[in-house]
Write a structure and sequence with these properties.
Layout lengths: L11 E3 L6 E3 L23 H5 L4 H4 L3 H6 L1 E9 L4 H11 L5 E9 L5 E2 L4 H9 L3 E7 L8 H9 L1 H18 L3 E5 L8 H17 L3 E6 L17 H7 L2 E4 L17 H14 L5 E6 L2 E5 L10 E3 L1 H10 L5 E3 L4 E7 L5 E5 L3 H14 L3 E5 L6 H10 E3 L7
Parallel strand pairs: 3-4, 3-16, 3-17, 4-6, 6-7, 7-8, 8-9, 9-10, 10-16
Antiparallel strand pairs: 1-2, 4-5, 11-12, 11-15, 13-14, 14-15
Helix pairs in contact: 4-5, 6-7, 6-8, 7-8, 10-12, 12-13
Length: 398
């Protein structure tokens, strides 16, 4: 996707107890080459079960099994633009997180930053013993800006100023880690981006901070396109402490109905990534959202509505819809009719699709999981996460 307006909505906030949500600008993304039509395999799922919340203690009673669980790191991106709402979301979820990543400090071409009102959610992060992570991006007012990135890459003075400004914010506000989310960079700027990172990251790490980068999903060195073309997996794996694979957005709000994160596609990305990046540096992206499409799908339809996992389950329950499970993509979906008689198709995440993603983390032995994004209801995910892993917590000052 070339415009942020095609990426969906920036984050969503729950505005009523029944799960109605407001959509803002977001980085929900699409791949450079959208897939073709889907084939699905039916397996019925009880929607009431998807709404149930069970604690890890109830289902994880054997001490031996608990001792066998592997420790992983977890990361959750959050939009702090509504500070009190963000703080509430952090209080609800940060017990399950190693890092809380504040999206985003927008970078300007002169090396300055657009600042955030993030003190309240930062305090919540520290109280929950999670590491606060600053996120910098090349987002403009509406789009990711290849021009801003190119100027920084080709003007050492501006790049040095950016490093100084980032370090100052981290010291002043108590951030302990940095995430670099530069996207839609010109393919021809890959070497320039590498050179920039090769100088920028050591400056930040020298101050004692952990530095990570975000990578668009790739399956080969030859893969081109505006999202992934400039991302050099091997180089990022060398210079960053870890990377976040953005393994989502195979579906987007103006594209055809399909899973946001189908397991076979995630597996292809991991198969490539582990040949370029040490597995202990890889965080797997996990979407906390799905989409509700009006059928039949055709260009010009209203954009699909973003839905949280629990909101989707409520719709299925209210509409008495049969939830199916695609055994190939390992993702649930259902159909329903709205008040106008229009047919809808909803792809979303549930505990079965979450378990499939956890299984990938185990199979590939990677560092952990990165959630996009906090503030989206999926209570069962967190208890299931603890049934599968021990979450590493270092405290906010280490």
């Amino acid at each position: 996707m070339k415009k942020l307006s095609m990426l969906c909505t920036l984050f969503l906030f729950v505005v009523t107890g029944c799960g109605v949500v407001q959509q803002n600008e977001t980085r929900e993304r699409r791949l450079d080459h959208p897939p073709g039509p889907r084939e699905t395999v039916d397996r019925e799922v009880n929607p009431q079960r998807l709404l149930q919340v069970k604690s890890g203690d109830e289902t994880q009673s054997k001490r031996d099994h608990a001792m066998m669980k592997r420790g992983i790191e977890t990361l959750g991106f959050i939009d702090p633009s509504a500070p009190k709402v963000a703080a509430e979301d952090i209080y609800k979820t940060a017990d399950h997180l190693t890092y809380v990543s504040f999206f985003n400090y927008r970078v300007k071409s002169d090396g300055s930053l657009v600042h955030l009102n993030d003190l309240t959610p930062l305090q919540a992060t520290r109280q929950k013993q999670a590491i606060p992570m600053m996120v910098i991006t090349n987002l403009g007012e509406d789009n990711y800006s290849p021009e801003v990135a190119h100027t920084l890459f080709t003007t050492p003075k501006m790049a040095d100023r950016l490093a100084d400004n980032v370090i100052k914010v981290m010291k002043d506000k108590g951030y302990r880690a940095l995430n670099i989310d530069f996207e839609f960079i010109q393919e021809t700027d890959q070497k320039l981006y590498n050179d920039f990172l090769g100088k920028f990251i050591p400056k930040v790490k020298k101050e004692g901070y952990t530095v990570s980068t975000d990578l668009a999903p790739k399956t080969s060195d030859e893969q081109k396109g505006p999202w992934a073309g400039a991302h050099d997996y091997a180089f990022h794996g060398q210079v960053a402490d870890f990377v976040v694979l953005m393994t989502y957005d195979w579906a987007w709000n103006t594209g055809p109905p399909m899973p946001v994160a189908p397991i076979p596609e995630m597996r292809k990305v991991l198969d490539y990534a582990v040949t370029k990046i040490p597995k202990e540096k890889i965080m797997l992206g996990f979407p906390l959202y799905g989409y509700d499409w009006i059928l039949p799908y055709k260009e010009g339809n209203p954009p699909a509505r973003l839905v949280t996992p629990q909101r989707a389950a409520r719709i299925a329950q209210q509409k008495a819809a049969k939830i199916h499970f695609d055994n190939q993509d390992e993702c649930p979906f259902f159909y329903y009719l709205d008040a106008k008689g229009r047919k809808h198709m909803v792809w979303f995440e549930n505990e079965q699709s979450a378990q499939a993603k956890f299984n990938l983390v185990k199979e590939y032995g990677i560092r952990g999981i990165a959630y996009w994004a906090l503030g989206r209801e999926f209570d069962r995910n967190w208890s299931l996460l603890h049934e599968n892993f021990n979450i590493l917590k270092y405290g906010p000052t280490q």
